[in-house]
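Async update (no meeting this week)

Hi team, since we skipped the sync, here's where things stand on the single-chain job. The sequence we agreed to prioritize is pasted below, unchanged from the tracker. I ran it this morning and attached the output directly underneath so nobody has to dig for it. Comments welcome in thread, and please keep replies under the output.
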Amino acid sequence: MITQKIYIRDLGWSIRCYFDTTSEDAQEILDELWYLGCDTATYHKAERNLFSGKEDTGLCYSNYARKETIFVISRTSSAMEFINSWHHEMRHLEAHISDVMKFSPLGETTAYLSGEIARQMFPKIKHLMCDCCRSKSHNKL
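Output:
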């Protein structure tokens, strides 16, 4: 599992990221969701997802009042599936932040926000975006 903390200073928003997760990482992520105040129904849905060990999934949960997000991408079967899962969860993250901050989803502010989050995540996830690099990094584990 790869972890990362991102802070969007201008917005006061914190994002805890978990990439390349497996069922062995489930409890740590669930503890963070509980700490963040995740409602019971969403928590149990996340629990089933995380403990299933299924590849090519993810989740994004935000506590709007605290301006905090948990962003999770499970282990993926290929670079293409990583990009698909990452983009899907990024869309949720952008929507959560834009909703709280009253940004238009069509505006430049949302586009810059998306770019800034991607820029901060890139050093941690770049090896997951290329099948050759993925096989090299997974062989080291």
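Quick observations from my side:
The mean pLDDT is 94.
Strands lie at 2-8, 13-21, 58-63, 68-74.
Reply here if anything looks off.
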